[in-house]
């Protein structure tokens, strides 16, 4: 299982898909990738986040050879001011695996 809890949030859609291909190659074919991302909210000066949305989750995952394994969930992150900020959370599996095919039925 790979946990990516905010590390793939910067750059263009193409750059993120390219970066996502690397960690997804680490687990076994039945492994999962847990991803959490900022939906594009500003968090500080000089940081430009990719505006993750439910539509991007499936399209970018597919471009990286992944299929979403469950529904997209919303989580919160408590920032340094004590405010809760939303995050998108999803599970990916490698596209084309038996576990993925069974889960999508």
Summed over residues and divided by their number, the pLDDT gives a mean of 83
CATH superfamily: Vaccinia Virus protein VP39
Overall structural class, as computed from helix and strand content, comes to: alpha+beta
Percent of residues in helices comes to: 10-25%
CATH arch. level architecture: 3-Layer(aba) Sandwich
Q: Might you state the CATH topology name? A: Rossmann fold
Evaluate the radius of gyration: 14 Å
Strand runs, count:
5
- What is the rounded distance between the termini? 23 Å
Stretches where pLDDT is under 50 for at least 5 consecutive residues are 99-105
Q: How many individual helices?
A: 3
Q: What percent strand?
A: 25-35%
Describe the biggest sheet?
Answer: 5 strands, mixed
Total domains: 1
Instruction: Report the order of strands and helices.
Output: EHEHEEEH
Highest-level CATH class: Alpha Beta
Write structural notes for this entry:
It is a single chain. This protein is α+β, with helices and mostly antiparallel strands. It has a single domain (about 1-105), classed as 3-Layer(aba) Sandwich (Rossmann fold), CATH 3.40.50. It is built from three helices and five strands, in the order E-H-E-H-E-E-E-H. Strands 1, 2, 3, 4 and 5 form a five-stranded mixed β-sheet that branches. Helix 1 (about 15-20) packs across helix 2 (about 55-65). The radius of gyration is 14 Å and the shape is globular.
């Amino acid at each position: 299982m790979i946990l990516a809890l905010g590390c793939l949030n910067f750059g263009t859609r193409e750059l993120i898909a390219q970066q996502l291909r690397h960690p997804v190659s680490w687990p076994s074919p039945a492994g999962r990738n847990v991803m959490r991302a900022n939906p594009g909210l500003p968090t500080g000066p000089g940081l430009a986040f990719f505006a993750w949305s439910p539509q991007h989750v499936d399209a970018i995952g597919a471009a990286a050879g992944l299929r979403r394994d469950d529904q997209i969930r919303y989580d919160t992150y408590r920032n340094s001011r004590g405010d809760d900020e939303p995050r998108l959370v999803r599970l990916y599996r490698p596209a084309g695996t038996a576990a993925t095919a069974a889960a999508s039925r």
